[in-house]
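Exercise 7. Predict the joint structure of the components listed below.
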Amino acid sequence: MNAPLPPQALAGSARAEPVLAVAGLTKAFPGRQVLRGLDFTLSPGQATALIGANGSGKSTLLRCLVRLVEPTSGEIRMLGRDVPMLAPRALRRLRAEVGIVWQRHNLVPRLSALSNVIHGVQARMSGPHAWAQSLAPAPVRGEAMECLARVGLADRALLRVDSLSGGQQQRVAIARMLMQRPAFILADEPDASLDPQTGEEVMSLLLDLVREEGLSLLVISHRLEHTLRFSDRILGLANGRIALDLPTSRANPTSLRRFFDHAEAA
Amino acid sequence: MTALAPARFRHRSLVEYAALLSVLALVVTSLAATAPAPEKLGSGFARLFAPSGMLTQMVPPDFTRIAPIAWKLLETLQMAVAGCFLGLLLALPFAILATDRLSPHPLVRHAARALIALFRTVPDLVWAIIFIIIVGLGPAAGVMAIMVDKIGFAGRFFAEAMEETDPGPQDALRAIGASRLGIIGSAVLPACLPSFTATSLFALEKSVRGSAALGLVGAGGIGVDLKVAFDLFNYDEALAIILLMLLLVVAVEQGSGWIRRKLI
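Solution:
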């Protein structure tokens, strides 16, 4: 069962400015149209699951939102900024406010968990003191330890991340994302490479951040049960279009299955 | 029924046969034009071992001037260490600029790659002659020559190591708005550290071997003494110098091998 929405999400969702507003978004690669005109908005303080079969364009959409992949056309307004129009410096500032959790955790394997978490501070400051825990000033180290404690890994701070389990590495990646102090979280199948129990813990951790910190979350989900348990709203992508948009409480598992069926996508 | 065995060799086209013949012709003509005649080689070896021959006069080696030779060996090692250190230091920015993912612009990348190729292609003896003209005879020219040679050597291997690193951590940092320098310092350098260490130690070994030869053109180090010993027909002293050089090179190789095993 879903945890209750935070007060700001319930009260303000109707009138507060959306964290994300997408209109007419398209993305074409040579010989292939992936996104065919998407329109949707996300309210603050909500967890939204983005579902769709393999190749439906979920990851491309996520990358287009912060211009890691340049969209072909359309409007994206995120955290009050017109994303396609942003100059490189302004784009960097926007990205600093958006935490991304990847399917692969993308940590630097030879460094400690603490150093990897400290890398998150590069969203706010630059210079060698943000490169490794041994160079970081005391307040940054302290904040990084708090982030590690938030994901339950404070006791593993000085271990090399490649000595941690897959689930622990994903938690370190989430702690690095917290170090950014993000206003909006994008997560690309954060539970994909994890066993069911660890995947559930990671998804639960992300939902806790939405509930307790009032953050907004757009998460690509490839597990039906996680979609139903860890989101407030579901967006379904099919053939490059939004084919489903409904509150999770009204979702019917049977009707959602087609978004997880790889054969239908092909 | 027994299955037929496949053909022993793959069928080749006429073009492939022509290419093979061309390579063979190149090898044969090269050997014919440049390789020494067996009888000439035989008489040459006989001269070496004759009572007045060089090898005969080399034995036993003459260590009477061991103190000045040892100082020159130390100078050779210092030239190698100083040149190698400066070269590795400068190789890093060149390598960053030559790397696809880290270079600020394709033109910069091409320019950096061209310079690295130039530094690598021109032999260190030629660099030594150029720097003798600039800074005069002595170890400083040798240090500069080793430095430039190492920019070419390490620049290429550093760039290759950076190209081969997992792009994931770099993309993750780019996605949170990290600067180019931040990505290099946080993700690229830590990932490349084992490879950089191995390359640096090989560069040091190469520098020690190379620095001994640089003295032959007047760029300092033990090479000067070796040349003088040969010029004055002091072959026994030349053998002593060669043996001490061998000792130095083996010591450096053993030391760097030990460090490599400890660090990587």
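Discussion. DSSP finds ten helices and ten strands in chain A.
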